[in-house]
Amino acid sequence: MSTFNRRASKRRRRRPPQAFHAATATEERFLHQAIQNSKLDRSRSKDAKLEIPWGPVFFPTIEDMEGSPLTYIEKIRPIAQRYGICKIVPPKGWDAPFSADVNIRKRFSTKNQLLHRLQEGISFGDGEEYNPVEYQRMSSTFTKDFKAKNYPNDGIADQDGEVDEKARFNPDNLERDYWDIVETRSREIAVEYGNDVDTNEFGSGFPLSERGRCVYGTSDPEKEGLPEPEFGTQDYYRETYWNTNNIPWAPESVLRHVKVGINGINVPWMYYGTLFSTFCWHNEDNYLYSINYHHKGAPKQWYGVPGTNKDAEGLEKVFKNYLSMKMRDVPDLLHHITTMFSPRLLQNAEVPIYKLLQNEGEYVVTFPRAFHGGFSFGPNIGEAVNFATHDWIAHGASANERYRSFARPAVFSHDRLTFTMAHHLEDQTSYKNCKALLDELERVVQEELQSRKKLIASGVRDVSKIISLPKNRLDQLDEESADYDDKRLCHACKHVCFFSAVACECSHSKVSCLRHSHYMCRCPTERRYLMVWSQEEELTETLKEVGNHLDTLEKPQEAPVDISATLEALPVLAVGAEKDLADNKNRPISLEPYTAPVSMVPESHISSNQKPSEAVLPEVTTDEDKEEGSEDDVEVIAVVPPGGSAP
Predict the structure, then answer these.
(1) Which pLDDT value is given to residue 64?
(2) By the 8 A CB rule, do 407 and 494 touch?
(3) Does the N terminus or the C terminus of the chain have fewer Cβ atoms within 10 A?
(4) Closest listed residue to residue 277, CA positions, set 171, 152, 380, 131
(5) In Å, what is the CA distance from 55 to each residue of 362, 366, 406, 512?
(6) Contact 242, 143 (CB under 8 A)
């Protein structure tokens, strides 16, 4: 080959021009949405400040703290619920001990959050694994580095003795930084968030009850009959229902009937946060209440939207408009809790939004269906759990219907819980709440019985006289009951078929709720049959018993009115906000990791499969993978002896 040819062979060949292809309609929509979102994100100046009104702050007395938190929350609910979120600051003398063993060697997983992409709805990747000491050190270092780089002159006065407010490392400026990153993607920053940390494995920040008031506590018969401990004593923090382990089991709580431990529902989760680690927009499972306690470290910024139909749907509309194309592929994207879009978008859509600043030793309560989200200002440790008062029933019904539309399984069966409540009528002391329970039971039973008649008339066989199925257990919701419910989820909407289900001869594992039996297969109708756990007589008798109990309760003098239609406009500054702002003015942000000696962790607080670590500085260890048991298919028809009992 000649030199010329060798050189020619090494030259980059010119590529032939590509034929032009017009963008598809889908590509055009994606491009249009990206352009519109970009205009929204970049239409503000860098120094633009979010003007978000403060939410309400309440200051309970020692007497309030010695009582039930549900009683106190019910007292403040007429005001607090209108904001969706509120803060509760315990009185002077409150000094809850931090009981989790931060020196434990075991590691928890984290989520890697790309702050500059939080508005895109992308899933979080896995971060590194840390034990509590390692995470706190990492978080402290990260926060200090950010401060050194961005706020080197924090608190330093100039020649005239003036301090530049924009140079302060404080919540106002950090809030501006956070939304500058999220909205405009001006910087690329990733943080690792230790969310949903199992308190059974890593310990709760509160001491565990010795009077049987939480899932993983103990029950000492000699202590159960004793008077309630006095505020501020060691036993008080162990037994008070303000302890996040205990609040789901409070006497007024609906969740006390749920005896199976459900992490994050009636068993608290711990949260290890760092600067800008984010809990994205969401509302609680089954539209439950939630309560979050801030144990240690830097404050958290909270945002909340009221849980009214108008306001919650307003946020959902903003979400759908902003991520409309992505939601075509992932319709339940909002339930993934991976999206944090700007409050500015909500304000532009006239959706009300409020904020709170949560410091050490303070509670934040969220109300049913209220969307909330926020982020941390540095290394911190929090703990949260759900609860439900009797007024929650209507919200739970709405959540149940919403989940069915997305084919999303609920964390527990709404029908089972309401019928369990109907079998504990001694708890129903309010006419209003008992009437709400009766209304929900009547709605469910009416649909159930009408659907049965329609299906049988269409040719579905009723085999309830031939096949004996175990009766539903209605004294409590325990682990065996929950496992049984998991085996009778509707194949279409994932609803627990609690009263009855439709099955077909073509499958021994697939069942359908009465609404969706026509989706389960292509077999002729005559091959399908109706399985019944709760007979019509049982359902109607339950309604009768609840109705009779309602008649024994004192009826309000006046008929209930639509409170929302009569309420005055909310004040410019929410109740308690002015005092709270004054109390925390110029409060410094903690940058140091929390550390505690092992001797502070009581032996009784550690689970039976744990022992306190022997060294303050943990060594690098590797946890053995847990072998997960496989779920065997269970036939949908199980013939049991007459009188048998179902879970």
Answers:
(1) 98
(2) yes
(3) N
(4) 380
(5) 14, 11, 32, 44
(6) no
Q: Cα separations (Å) of 275 from 39, 175, 584?
A: 28, 11, 19
Residue type, 370: A
Tokens of residue 178, six digits: 């956070």
**What gap in Å lies between CA 636 and CA 395, rounded to an integer?**
31
From edge to edge, which strands make up the β-sheet containing 371-376?
278-282, 371-376, 300-305, 354-358
Angstrom distance (rounded) from CA 60 to CA 69: 10
639-644, Cβ contacts within 8 angstroms, sequence gap of 24 or more: 639/467, 639/468, 640/468, 640/469, 640/470, 641/468, 642/468, 644/468, 644/470, 644/471
Could you tell me the end-to-end alpha-carbon distance of the chain, in angstroms, rounded to an integer?
Answer: 85
Q: pLDDT tens digits for 397-431?
A: 999 999 999 899 999 999 999 999 999 999 899 89
CA pair distance 170, 172, nearest whole angstrom: 6
Q: Structure tokens of 286? A: 């089954």
- Tell me how far apart the alpha carbons of residues 417 and 442 are, in angstroms, rounded to a whole number: 15
Q: Is 516 exposed, middle or buried (0-12, 13-18, 19+ CB in 10 A)?
A: middle
> Would you state the structure tokens that stand for residue 335, as one six-digit string?
């339930």
CA atoms 475, 480, 483, 484: torsion sign:
negative
Residue range 539-595, pLDDT digits in tens: 999 999 999 999 999 888 765 444 444 567 899 899 999 999 999 999 999 999 998
Residue 43 CA to residue 295 CA, distance in Å, equals: 38
Packed helices 431-458 and 536-552: angle between N→C axes, nearest 10 degrees:
160
Amino acid at 414: H
Q: What are phi and psi of 111, to 5 degrees?
A: -110, 135
Instruction: Read off the tokens for 197.
Output: 């940390």
Query: What pTM was computed for the model?
Result: 0.85
Per-residue CA distances from 29 to 33, 36, 323, 326, 622 (Å): 6, 10, 11, 11, 48
C-alpha span between 590 and 300 (Å, rounded): 11
What span, in angstroms and rounded, lies between the C-alpha atoms of 244 and 98? 12
Q: In whole angstroms, what is the distance from residue 44 CA to residue 127 CA?
A: 32
The answer for residues whose C-beta is within 8 angstroms of residue 139's C-beta and 6 or more apart is 272, 273, 274, 275, 378, 379, 593
